[in-house]
Amino acid sequence: MGLTTQLGTMVDPQNLLRVVEVSATAAGFEDVGAHTLRPSAATAWLEASVHIKAVADLVGHGSISVTGDL
């Protein structure tokens, strides 16, 4: 599973990182990278009632206890 472009090809990870970094800088944030978004994404999914096991899998946690603790 991965992110795709409008043409259906895989998004280059370096391009995604560049978009995140440029957007963060424009918003006045420093030291923001792609992994900075993981906790925010996990929180949003949990608030949207996504099952905690699915969230743990999506963010790469080995167990739901790690997801729950964070």
Automatic annotation (TrEMBL):
Keywords: DNA recombination. Residues 1-70 form the Tyr recombinase domain. Gene3D superfamilies: Intergrase catalytic core. InterPro entries: DNA_brk_join_enz, Integrase-like_cat_sf, Integrase_catalytic. This is Tyrosine-type recombinase/integrase. The lineage of its organism: Bacteria, Bacillati, Actinomycetota, Actinomycetes, Mycobacteriales.
